[in-house]
Amino acid sequence: IREKLTSASTEYGYSSASRLHNVELAASRVDGALIPPGGTFSFNEAVGPVTYDSGYQTGYGIMITNGSISTVPSVGGGICQVATTVFQSVFWAGMPIVERSWHLYWIPRYGQGQGGLKGLDATVDPDYDLDFKFHNASNNWLAVKTNYDGMTLGFELWGTPTGWNVAVDQPVITNVVAASQEMYYEDSAELPRGTSVFVEHAEDGFNAAIHRVVTDGNGQVIDDTVFHSNYAPAKNTTLVGTGG
Predict the structure, then answer these.
(1) 161 contacts 139 by C-beta, under 8 angstroms
(2) CA–CA dist 7, 157 (Å, integer)
């Protein structure tokens, strides 16, 4: 583990206090993860249980409830931003991705930081067996390093330079579905009566395809993958408290 190979960052300073707490807690637990040559990194294993007992608080997560997609209170809400930022740093290092799922909605800020592209995100949910995993295809150990300051979340992948070339095409965006700008109100027993929280911003739905080709120093192809993502349109949503 000699040099910084790649890095990526996303902004999280907009977060509520509980979401900010969850992001930093998950990031701190990924910090220092070591992956041996030929080994596989699991985000869920690195983070550990996402529960109240392990220190997480209630944030907000995108779920399918009663057959529809919605943003709802969720223990550990915000850790998907950590998974996304780790994924982006690994993506640019050329490491093979073993498992990755995209968000149900596209979240624009995930494509705006260092290493970000439209359609380049990752979501995790231990309760639904959704994980982010990558394979260390290099001949040396890798280490994951975290940094955060209340505004910017960053991840770095450290190791020994591989000599690989990572060529990435710009995202190909298709099947755009325009989002309604109407405000939707949903009752939430998780919030005290008389309170409300704006939890979801209208964003168009679309399909994204990102082509990545990794070659070694001799020009031989190591990995040739198209990363597909399919996002539903998101709607402006305010949760209205009905709880005690």
Answers:
(1) no
(2) 6
Give me the count of residues in the chain: 244
Q: Per residue in 47-82, pLDDT tens?
A: 999 999 999 998 877 777 666 677 777 888 899 999
What is the per-residue DSSP string for 48-116? ---STTTT--EEEEEEEETTEEEEEEEETTTHHHHHHHHHHHHHHHTPPEEE-B--SS--GGGGTSTT-
Q: Report which residue type is found at 165.
A: N
* Residue carrying structure tokens 């050329």: 94
Q: Is the CB of residue 208 less than 8 Å from the CB of residue 108?
A: no
Task: Classify burial at 128, counting beta carbons within 10 Å of its beta carbon; exposed 0-12, middle 13-18, buried 19 or more.
Answer: exposed
Instruction: Kindly state the helix (H) or strand (E) to which residue 167 belongs, with its residue range.
Output: strand 165-168
Structure-token pair, residue 55? 């220190």
Residue 237's DSSP bridge partners are: 184, 200
Q: How confident is the model at residue 143 (pLDDT cuts 50, 70, 90)?
A: very high
Model pLDDT for residues 159-169, shown as the tens digit of each residue: 999 999 999 99
DSSP codes joined into one string, 196-237: EEEEE--B-EEEEEEEEEEE-TTS-EEEEEEEEEEEPPB-EE
**What is this structure's pTM?**
0.92
Buried b (16+ CB within 10 A) or exposed e, 151-161: eebbbbbbbee
